[in-house]
Amino acid sequence: MADKKIKFGIIGLGLMGREFASAAARWCHLPDLDIQPEIIAICASSENSFSWYTDNIPSITQTTTDYHELLANPEVEAIYCAVPHNLHEQFYCDIIKAGKHLLGEKPFGIDKKANENILKCLAENPNVFARCASEFPFIPAAQYVGKMIQEDKFGKIIEVNSGFMHSSDMDPNKAINWKRRQITNGEYGCMGDLGVHVCNMPFRAEWDLLNVRAILSNLMPERPDGKGGMALCDTWDNATLFCEAQSKDGLSFPMTVKTQRIAPGEKDTWYIEILGTEKSVRFSTKNPKCLEIMDYINTGTQAWQMLDMGHETAFKSITGGIFEFGFSDAILQMWAAFLYELSEGKVKNKFAACVTPEEAALSHRLFTAALKSQKNRSTELV
Question: Is the same domain home to 148 and 119?
Answer without folding.
Answer: no
